[in-house]
TrEMBL record:
This is Branched-chain-amino-acid aminotransferase. It comes from Westerdykella ornata. Keywords: Amino-acid biosynthesis, Aminotransferase, Branched-chain amino acid biosynthesis, Pyridoxal phosphate, Transferase. The modification N6-(pyridoxal phosphate)lysine is found at K227. PROSITE patterns: AA_TRANSFER_CLASS_4. The keyword Transferase applies. One of its GO terms (cellular component) is mitochondrion. Transmembrane segments: none annotated.
Amino acid sequence: MAPIAVTPPCEPVTTITKPYSHGLAELDASLLQTTLTTSPRPVPALGSPEMASQRTCTDHMIQATWNSETGWSAPTLTPYGPLSLMPTASCLHYATECFEGMKLYRGFDGKLRLFRPDLNCKRMLVSTNRISLPSFPPDELLKLIAKLCATDGPRWLPKDRPGSFLYIRPTMIATDPALGVQRPTEAMLYVILTCFAPMDDVPGGMKLLASQDDMVRAWPGGFGYAKVGANYGPSLVAQGEARRRGYHQILWLFGDECYVTEAGASNFFVVWRTKEEGKLQLVTASLDERIVLDGVTRRSVLELARTRLADASAAAEEEGLEPLEVVERRYTMFEVEEAAREGRLVEAFGAGTAWFVAPVGKIHFRGKDIEVPQSEGDGGRYTKAVKRWLKGIMWGEEGSEAHEWGYVVEEK
């Protein structure tokens, strides 16, 4: 089956235009119907097993249903609870499901913030288009997410817990009860907030196991660029093998050339010096082949590096960092191996919503361990600088309170 036309992730997602529902009722946040819980859930203590379990959700959830005859129903905000699905629901048989990963942050300035949520909502539209789920106006999804955050955020992220966060999971599933392999005629959108422990503080850095020749996460013409469940289920065998052998994540390679793509569910970056001129570069996989996710953290790392590290700018001088060139291209694990052998590998890190910015300390490739330098013991200087800049925006630290990437949620 030929892939359906989608907006390429490497093009500005702002090129997506209306109409979204082709004359049917569109998703409309102004129609939200609210029913608040009468039995609030206990908020777990920081550092508790409940906080780390990734199973504890807040008091409420957003839902909206869609069908091919009428379009979107009025969305609802209701107490968190089970979904009702028929055993023949399309999502249970054909992986007609997509999602996003976001966070709600309690800032050190007392404010609740989202980080570039417009990009997540637009990317979710790209994912729904790829797997025949209904379209929606991204701005309306953002309004619903903000409403849920404003409802549950004040109690679950109290002001005496600055620097903490909740994980946001917007999801769309096909609920069509027909078993036939066809475009779904019914769907459900829902949004939940979940307690999530920080994952970026890894002593010694992340240890990555490079994937074997018989393991492929994504391929040209597939759906690696979309955030769909079908990208993740098949990767769990490899992920389990990595954990069994003492590694944190799989470093996904592609093809006989062993092109580097992603680290687990995170984008992967290396800082090295070029072989010919010794030029310092920040390198990550290109989006051109559409096998790498256009990560919001990835995009932000690249934009910050280009504005603050590409030349001898004031920010680079303040950090005492050598300027570097930002490069998005195909590169192989053999290049990484060679750079390490010749002393040109400076540092490496993974970047994504869940892992945030996590330094990499070791990569196992074809029977050998590649030790990745960490100039400051718990990460490289560039890794730590990028992480510090992002944290300042996400948590509203001094100098970053009004940054355009920080979306302030107005509390009730």
